[in-house]
Amino acid sequence: NAGVTQTPKFQVLKTGQSMTLQCAQDMNHNSMYWYRQDPGMGLRLIYYSASEGTTDKGEVPNGYNVSRLNKREFSLRLESAAPSQTSVYFCASSEGPTGRAYGYTFGSGTRLTVV
Amino acid sequence: KQEVTQIPAALSVPEGENLVLNCSFTDSAIYNLQWFRQDPGKGLTSLLLIQSSQREQTSGRLNASLDKSSGRSTLYIAASQPGDSATYLCAGNYGGSQGNLIFGKGTKLSVKP
Fold first, then answer.
1. What residues pair up with B24 in beta bridges, in sequence order?
2. How confident is the model over B27-71, as pLDDT tens digits?
3. How far are the Cα atoms of A59, A76, A85, B33, B75 from residue A36, in angstroms, in the given order?
4. Which residue of A has its CA nearest to B88?
5. Residue A42 — pLDDT band, cuts 50, 70, 90?
6. B26 CB near a chain A CB, below 8 Å?
7. Which residue in chain B is spatially nearest to A97 when comparing CA positions?
8. Residues B46, B64: contact at Cβ < 8 Å?
9. Rounded to an integer, what is the distance from CA B77 to the centroid of its chain?
C-alpha cells in the first residue's frame, strides 16, 4: 500500500549539476504530475503526463525535463541546476486526466537545495 | 484566470473548539474540490474530495461543503485536537486534458492544548 513513492527525499546540488528525481506509483493510475512548492507561491505544476507515452508542460516547465518511463514511473530531470530551483518537489498521480472520481494522491516530496 | 484563495492564512484555536476553514474559487466550472493536510516537512495527505454534483462530504470529525454558485468551500473540524495542527490546502480541479489542480496557499492551523 505504498501509493506514490519519491526518491531521494533530500538532495543538495551545486549550481550547474544535473540530477533526476524519481517517482513511482502502484495504484495503476494513468496520469502523473510533478509540482514544486515554494513559500508564498503555493504548489505549481511543472510537467504532467496524462497517460503513458505522453508528457506536457505545466505552469513552470523551464529548466526541467520529464520522462514517463512506463505506466508506473515518471521522472523529473534538472539538466543544469540553478539556485532558483531550490524547492520542494512533489509527484502526484490520478486515475485519469481529470482526476474526477478519485482525486489526486501525492508523494512525500523531495527537498532540493541548489547552492 | 482560475484562482483559489484561502483565508485566513493562519489560525490558532484552543483545544476542543469547532472551527471552519474557508476556500474560495473564481471559476465555478469546477469538476471537484479536494482538501489536503500537510504536516511540516511532509507531503500532502488527501482528506476529502467533493464532486461538483455533491454538496458535502464527511470523514470522522471533518466535514467539507461545496457551493459552486458562490464559489466557496468550507472545511469544518469538530472538537479540534492538538494533533490537528497542520497546514490545510484546498485545490480546485477544472479537468480538461491537463487535469491540473489549482491550489490555494493554505491555512496554517495551530490547536493549543
1. B5, B72
2. 888 888 999 999 998 899 999 999 889 999 999 999 999 999 999
3. 10, 11, 9, 20, 24
4. A42
5. confident
6. no
7. B99
8. no
9. 11
